Amino acid sequence: MSTEDDVPFNRNFPLAPGVVQEVVPGVRRIICNNPSPFTFSGTVTYIVGTGKVAIIDPGPINEAHAAAVLDAVRDETVTHIFVTHSHRDHSPGAARIKAATGAVIYAEGPHRASRPIHAGDARSTEAGGDRDFNPDVKLKDGEVVTGGDWALQGVTTPGHAANHMAFAWPQRQLMFVGDHVMGWSTSIVSPPDGSMVDYMASLDKLTHRDERLYFPGHGPEIADGPRFVSFLIRHRKAREASILHRLGKGEADIPTIVRASYIGIDPRLTTAAGYSVLAHLEDLVARGIVVTDGDPSITGRYRLAGPLT
Ligand SMILES: [Zn+2]
User: Fold this and answer.
1) Which of 36, 114, 168, 244 is the Cys-Cys partner for 153 at CB 3.0 to 4.6 Å?
2) Each residue's pLDDT tens digit, 2-42
3) Residue 203 CB: number of other CB atoms within 10 A?
4) How much distance in Å is there from the Cα of 33 to the middle of ligand 1?
5) pLDDT tens digits for range 212-257
6) Residue 160 CA, ligand 1 centroid: distance in Å
7) How far is the CA of 188 from the centre of ligand 1 (A)?
8) What distance in angstroms lies between residue 130's CA and the mean position of ligand 1's atoms?
9) How far does the centroid of ligand 1 lie from the alpha carbon of residue 161, in Å?
């Protein structure tokens, strides 16, 4: 969403698709030409290390992008492929890079929803799940994988997607944060793929870590990641307050809440905003603050369980 003015977003990212850029020593990035309201200028693929390298988030099925990534490492050996989560703009390209290089694919696990599917669930609003994705090696939280001149630690960060994993490079004080934290926009948290409870816990988790420099799956790097995350936490709490404020005026459905709390939203993002509100409402229902009839759903009506304290 791009309606927020309480988070210091940075949409200055002039890197053109297919151009290889070394951002800091040992970290190169290259953008896929798949721009959209959800992917900003496109998916960012990272090359980690020199000589024996890892590739993070190979991107969607896109032959021009795969060719550009492979060309960037033509004199090197790709030993590892890491995938932050199984959305179609991040993971499907892994099979293409593996076929060309023989590298092993590492991720938290295959695609799955954050909670059991309800009868009222519609399909996810983002690029969609890559249900064919299954990593060669499943990583646990905190597990470290060592390569040529680098070592990456898996950090489970569910919320945007159930299998979302960030990859920290502790010695270098930097982290590849996928779609969990992005400098250009808030992340989509859309049930049943996403979960607001998990997302908030995963934001809090990063504020307790030492890495400062964040490399997201879309858009520019974030110089002070934990500080930016504290803005995101505050933003979500303000969003929750605005939903409760609207419900304080009486029972409402999700389109009504979106109109009341997303002023001036890009019309292409209204559906996504609705799912984001649903994510908040699921959380509020679970906490007993809001009630609805049956399971929380995109078509449900919501009211306060009692007076706000
Ligand atoms: Zn995603």
Assistant:
1) 168
2) 346 689 999 999 999 999 999 999 999 999 999 998 899 99
3) 20
4) 16
5) 999 999 999 999 999 999 999 999 999 999 999 999 999 999 999 9
6) 6
7) 8
8) 10
9) 7
